[in-house]
Amino acid sequence: MEIAHATENDIERIMSLIKDCIRDMESHGIHQWGEYYPTRQIIQDDIENRSMFTAKEHDEVLGIIVVNEEQPPEWEKVNWSTQEGRILTIHRLAVKPTRKKQGIARRLLDYAEDHAVNNGYASIRLDAYSGNPRALKLYEKHRYNRVGQVFFPMRDLPFYCYEKSLRIMKSKRIP
């Protein structure tokens, strides 16, 4: 499996993966994503900004992750543990439903963490829908600490805010 920047050539496969994820989440009663998020325009912007990465095997997109420094305004009220230094954020982590439990999400998280450590970030922040127990378990298993919660429009449940300090992590080699 290779992790690399997403390209315009990947957009149809990424949108298909997102649709599959939406169907899978809804089948489990998780109403996190839908027709309003994430949109094709959001994905195109991620690709143009070079903040989206794909996990591929034989040209098949198995997973995606967005890493950048963009923090939603809703996060301003969160009592983050890291107050100084550069902050990397994770958005839109998704894995093809037929490839769940194969370590793809873990590899994407490791990739983001390696990138953060190797580029001098102090911590990584993200939010996860509280109605998505699989996502919560993934982040908690990878030692992300829950530091608060926020609400986003058109969602009944809160999103939990997580942070992982990188000050103690040693530099890793990006695969």
What does this molecule look like?
This protein has a seven-stranded mixed beta sheet. With about 180 residues, the protein is an alpha+beta fold. The chain has helices at about 10-25, 40-50, 105-120, 135-140; strands at about 1-5, 50-55, 60-70, 85-95, 125-130, 145-150, 160-165. It contains four helices and seven strands; from the N terminus they run βααβββαβαββ. The protein has one domain (about 1-165): 3-Layer(aba) Sandwich (Aminopeptidase).
As laid out across the biggest beta sheet, the strand order is 1-2-3-4-5-7-6
CATH architecture tag: 3-Layer(aba) Sandwich
Strand content: 25-35%
How would you spell out the order of helices and strands?
EHHEEEHEHEE
What is the approximate shape?
globular
Major β-sheet annotation: 7 strands, mixed
Total number of helical segments? 4
Terminal residue distance: 10 Å
- Using the CA coordinates, give the radius of gyration: 15 Å
| DSSP strand count | 7
Query: CATH first level: which class?
Result: Alpha Beta
- The total tally of domains equals 1
On the 0 to 100 scale, the average pLDDT is 93
- Stretches where pLDDT is under 50 for at least 5 consecutive residues are 171-175
Give me the CATH fold name: Aminopeptidase
The secondary structure category is: alpha+beta
